[in-house]
Amino acid sequence: MSAVDREAEVTQQHGINDSPVEEIIVTKQDSIDLEKEGRPTADGEEPTDDEKRALRHVAENLPASAWLVAIVELCERFTYYGMSGLFQNYIQRPLDGSQGRGALGMDHQGATGLNTFFQFWCYVTPIIGAIIADQYLGKYKTIVLFCIVYMVGLLILVLTSIPVALQHGAGLGGFIAAILIIGLGTGGIKSNVAPLIADQYKRKKMALKTLAKTGERVVIDPALTIQRIYMIFYGCINVGSLSLLATPYMEQYVGFWSGYLLCLCMFAVGTSVVILGRKFYVVRPPQGSIITDAFRALWIMIINRNMDAPKPSWQLEHRNVQSTNNWDDHFIDELKRALVACKVFAFYPLYWVIYGQFSGNFVTQAGQMDGHGIPNDLMQNFDPISIIVFIPLLETLVYPALRRLKIPFLPVTRISLGFFVAALAMAYAAIVQHLIYDAGPCYEHPLCDASIVNGEAQGNNVHIAIQTPAYMLIGISEIFASVSGLEYAYTKAPPSMKSFVQSMYLLTNAFGSAIAEALTPAAYDPAILWMFVGLAVASTLVSVIFFALFHHYNSQEEQMNALDADDDMPDAHHPDSK
């Protein structure tokens, strides 16, 4: 087969594109030197170490099926944020006869507590979704099943939020039932959508490619493509979350039920895309009892205080018994690799406490200021807007510039920076809260009787727009901490442990919600200012400690990113597989 034929075949099989996006430092002289050595590797083959260092690394375009998964996630996040962004007002404000002015009347602490519980529940349930997917149904069928569960919860929420239902006392019971069912649906989808989108990309090893237009030889780097996939994935999440541009106005001028109905309709669109696009997805079959076996093996490690204790060979050598478990020594070695990846996630719970403020206490804070006609829960949109603006800037300008300057910006560094930016967001929120307490008419007791105008309490004399940087800083922190966490959960996990490690990463969000729930008693005026200060200090410390403990992983990045194609599962259910 000629070089041209080989190039055409590789291009057809892998969708290699001629538009390099990611790059490692390289000069034309590097490429010329390699050619002079007379040992260039053929296109489609794995590059040598010298070629990896000298040639430009590029990412491939996303397969069409990955875009379909991204659209599904966009619809789900449109629903989740458009709905949950109204919860603080829905729970906190009393029903006063006006459709959009309130509903359950549980005050600030009650609203923060119930809202935080919903976030906690949404990130515990991914374990259930991961077990069902890995043991019984596979990712695709599990997503379809939990989409139906999700829609049932949304329907309950819509029906119990209409004015007549609220007036007859169905609001609280219906809301609790709805968030329990929606949380179950959310978890079942979240634990499988993130791995499913990366599963659509099948290349596991680096390969060489000669660009047709310029003749330049480049390295196709799967790790960069996975990074691009999750940046686009996160961008779609935040495009979806712009539903909060619409639902607060629907709440204010029509009623909560109208916002919830819009979310139900959008979710129906996403579910239709899942079902109608079935034949385009790379669908992997269930892998057996991976997660339950992993937890059983972990328990054996703990009680024996030895990470090799679950291995059948160790049992035979030290206990003189034949193991009756379903795993072999290789499975335990992979579990140990997964645990190394999971160590990085141990510091995330505090970050999620801070992240959760933008849909909870930040909404209440906005309601304590002069809104100038802007709904207090509309301000949340500055979080996704900042992400949508800064992701392209980072991808096209900042990251390439850092590489040209030979400044490494690897995952551990990005995560640590994300924690620090989150600390800045909380410090700024504390400053805003101080400004509110310094302003009349209510000072340290916002929305007091002295602020009532035409029967409605008004915020203190501070313009609501001053809160914008707090949301923007939270959004920027997500690009570094949250996106890098998704990437780390996929790339650092062994092939058989993708869902397991992803569910462990999502579980850190539940732990964060549990911590936030414990902080709920401090969510009152004026104590909440000091809660913001405490979170800012704690996140700064976590940023420093995290980098000190894990910065050495940056030097092992390429080794840990090596994806062994021989260990990966065949795409048996893909229509192109034979």
Put simply, the count of helices is 23
Radius of gyration: 26 Å
Instruction: Report the order of strands and helices.
Output: HHHEHHHHHHEEHHHHHHHHEHHEEEHHHH
Top CATH class of the domain at 343-562: Mainly Alpha
InterPro entries: MFS_trans_sf (IPR036259), POT_fam (IPR000109)
Keywords: Membrane, Transmembrane, Transmembrane helix, Transport
Family: Belongs to the major facilitator superfamily. Proton-dependent oligopeptide transporter (POT/PTR) (TC 2.A.17) family.
Membrane topology: Multi-pass membrane protein
Keywords:
globular, disordered N terminus, Growth Hormone, Chain: A, two-stranded parallel ribbon, 578 residues, three-stranded mixed beta sheet
Describe the structure.
It is globular, with a radius of gyration of 26 Å. It is 63% helix and 4% strand. It has 578 residues and is mainly α. The protein has helices at residues 3-14, 28-36, 49-54, 64-84, 87-92, 107-124, 126-161, 163-167, 171-199, 222-240, 247-253, 256-276, 290-304, 312-319, 329-344, 348-355, 361-367, 382-404, 411-437, 468-491, 498-518, 528-550, 557-561; strands at residues 56-58, 207-210, 217-220, 369-370, 452-453, 456-457, 460-463. Among the domains are: 290-325, no CATH class; 343-562, Up-down Bundle (Growth Hormone, Chain: A), CATH 1.20.1250.20.
